[in-house]
Design brief:
39% helix; single chain; nine-stranded mixed sheet; alpha/beta; 8 helices; two-stranded antiparallel ribbon
């Protein structure tokens, strides 16, 4: 089994907030040990009306969703830092396996027990992500190899994935060696994409690239896809 972590940020308005309901509905049949929902703090640019609505949204969620442990952050941390703080603060209480999904992702049907078993059998896999039903963007994903169940890739998508808490902590520790710039610091998967966009990546040999891949251990799982709902903030 595993724990569910839903990562949320402030929506632009009530219409956009309904995408969270779509996300939760797409996974409501799955069984988890514990369910956590993380609400990031509002950014400085948010209007008074937007903050009031966001506060109301969280209050309503707490009242109607008793099966979730609700974690609210007052500061606007963004995805990476929010998740990193949550893992650090709750590491010992969390299940070894974590199923992490963003608040604007509709996941297709999945047999979670089978997926967890397949991931465990793939000893090279650290990040098991679920892709979209469309061609992979060449600047974001580079296919290394594939078999009946997995696509081994340089690059991955953090919208919805499974990872152990130990592997996630190790990745956070690795990212501390990077100088933050651009979107680095706000998200996780962008670090890999930024590395692949550098001239030095194009000059690296295959073995060196695979050594870098081994830090992440990312695979796409075949047969399970998601749809990005693109929530406006």
């Amino acid at each position: 089994m595993c724990d569910l972590i839903v990562c949320c940020a402030i929506p632009k308005n009530e219409k956009e907030s309904l995408k969270l309901d779509t996300t939760l509905h797409s996974i409501e049949y799955l069984k988890f040990n514990n369910k956590y929902i993380l609400f990031d703090g509002a950014p400085d640019k948010a209007s008074v009306e937007q903050i009031e609505f966001y506060t109301s949204l969280k209050e309503v969620f707490v009242k109607k969703s008793h099966d979730f442990k609700v974690i609210e952050y007052k500061t606007n941390l963004y995805y990476k830092s929010m998740l990193e703080k949550f893992i650090g603060d709750n590491f010992d209480e969390l299940n070894d396996n974590l199923f992490i999904i963003q608040d604007d992702v509709q996941l297709g049907k999945i047999d979670l027990d089978t997926v967890l078993k397949d991931k465990e059998e793939n000893t090279d896999c650290k990040i098991l992500y679920f892709g979209e039903n469309r061609p992979k963007a060449a600047h974001w994903f580079q296919v290394i190899s594939q078999d009946a169940r997995f696509v081994k890739t340089h690059g991955w998508s953090e919208r919805v994935y499974i990872i152990t808490k130990k592997d996630l902590k190790n990745i956070f520790d690795f990212l501390k060696t990077f100088t933050r710039g651009g979107k680095n610091g706000k998200f996780i998967d962008v670090y890999y994409q930024n590395t692949m966009s550098r001239k030095s990546w194009k000059l690296m040999d295959t073995i060196s690239k695979l050594d870098y891949w081994a830090i992440w251990g990312c695979f796409e799982y075949k047969g399970v896809i998601h749809r990005h709902l693109v929530m406006k903030r």
